[in-house]
Amino acid sequence: MKFEKVKDGINMKYAVMENHQQLRKTVRKFVQKEIVPNIEEWEKNGFPNEIFRKMGQMGLFGVRYPEEYGGSNMDYFAAMTVTEEIASSGCAGLGMAFNVQALMATNPILKFGTEEQKQNYLAPSIAGEKIAALGITEPSAGSDVAGLRTTATKTDGGWIINGSKVFITNGIRADYQILIAKTGEKNGRPLFSIFLVDSNLEGYTVGRKLEKVGMHASDTAEIFLENVFVPDSALLGKEGEGFKQLMWQLNGERLIQATACVAGAQRCLDLAVQYAKEREQFGRSLSKNQVLGHYLAEMNTEVEAARALLYNTAAHYDKGEVLVKEISMAKLLASKVYYEVADKALQIHGGYGYMNEYPISREWRDARLMRIGGGADEIQKEIIAKEMDL
Q1: Is the pLDDT at 14 greater than 70, yes or no?
Q2: Nearest 5°: phi and psi at 305?
Q3: What is residue 21's DSSP assignment?
Q4: Could you tell me where the beta strands, DSSP code E, fall in 246-337?
Q5: How far, CA to CA in Å, does 133 sit from each of 177, 193, 195?
Q6: Does 10 have pLDDT greater than 50?
Q7: Spatial separation of the C-alpha atoms in residues 339 and 131, rounded to whole Å
Q8: Three-state DSSP class for 90?
Q9: CA distance 376 to 208
Q10: What are 198-229's pLDDT values in tens digits?
């Protein structure tokens, strides 16, 4: 995989192949026109479903998917390019919702789904006509996936699902969920399966919209399922292999989260540099203060280190190699760098950084989630330690 450095404003970015630069310019133009002017409104009231339809029309959901389902059949770096540009908009809530739709919830349909499922769910999701959610976390089980209590019981012609899910991104607006449920036991161990569950089914109830510290533009909900019947055709992949499928999905989820984190950290650095150059104290710009200059140098180093690990891991992932340890390392490092750079950037802003009118305050709030979602820091460390045979 050939990497080349290209000039992008005052920052040095990495790119893979020239066609990604055109894609980046196209997405950036879309972001500046359709997202940036609306961020303040969306932070108060949430983004409208219409933006998903516009993203679908632009082909942003499908850059990595086959053409027969409405995609562009590009490589993984194309998907990362789109994620980077949306994350750089300053609306991390929309970015999270986008990634759930584009790569987290829909990717298992391509990997494990039947042709009918791909036509009924994947294709309309790529078009932005259906909105997807990922139903994993429960009130009593987050990182402990084996402790999931939602059940799916076999019945004539289908399954009966009972349970609940929480912290579901796109949960309020979703047309369907990729939902994991316990479907039996083998040798004393629980067996799980994954289902495509439409939100308009009887017994499927959307609870309250959860109030979060950050990511205000996106909706996060709790979901209740009481005797929800789904047909046999709703089973995604093979019965009893849901845990294996979920672990595969989480690797991709963590890698794209790391991508959003690096892009978010770069935005925080850019905001800090801009403020330090423009703000004057004691007759000179803040950037001339050695302490703050060293802060910015350290922040820049951290961002580039996280980017290098991310891009190297992504190059292997693009070739079909799933490097579990490196993916967890990339997610762990990128999420920590995002939050730490956001925190330092806010410190450089001083009192102004604590004001909601300054965008760094939103980045600081939004960044904190990334060390929890997709597997907390501690889970990534456990995975890394296990891969090291410790």
Answers
A1: no
A2: -65, -45
A3: H
A4: 280-281, 284-285
A5: 5, 16, 12
A6: no
A7: 29
A8: coil
A9: 24
A10: 999 999 999 999 999 999 999 999 999 999 99
Residue matched to tokens 């850059």: 63
- pTM, rounded to two decimals: 0.92
Nearest to 42 by CA among 158, 220, 216: 216
Q: What are the tokens at 63?
A: 């850059």
Separation CA 303–CA 152 (nearest Å): 44
* C-alpha pair distances (Å), 37 with each of 47, 90, 245, 374: 12, 11, 39, 29
Assigned token pair, 105: 């919830």
Any idea which residue has 């076999």 for tokens?
154
Tokens of 15: 């790119």
Do 256 and 81 form a contact (C-beta atoms < 8 A)? no
Query: Exposed/middle/buried for 2, CB within 10 Å: 0-12, 13-18, 19+?
Result: exposed
Q: Which two tokens stand for residue 255?
A: 């890698």
Q: Is the dihedral of CA 224, 227, 233, 238 positive or negative?
A: positive
Q: What is the DSSP string of 360-374?
A: HHHHHHHHGGGGTTT
Structure-token pair, residue 1? 């995989």
Continuous segment of H or E residues that includes residue 223: strand 220-231
Sign of CA dihedral 24, 108, 201, 373: negative
Tokens of 289: 């203060």
Is 70 exceeded by the pLDDT of residue 60?
A: yes
Tokens of 65: 């998917």
Write out the catalytic residue numbers. Answer: 253
* Residues shown for the chain: 390
Residue 304, token pair as written in the block = 């580039």
Tokens at 56, concatenated: 């679908």
Give the pLDDT confidence of 238-247 residue by residue, as tens digits: 999 999 999 8
Question: ∠ CA(222), CA(226), CA(228), 5° rounding?
Answer: 105
**Chain centre distance of CA 113:** 21
In 3-state terms, what secondary structure has residue 175?
A: coil
169 within 8 A of 233, measured Cβ to Cβ: no
Query: Reduced to 3 DSSP states, what percent helix, strand and coil does the chain have, rounded to the nearest 5?
Result: 55, 20, 25
Alpha carbon distances (Å) from 292 to 127, 279, 285, 360, 384: 46, 12, 10, 16, 34
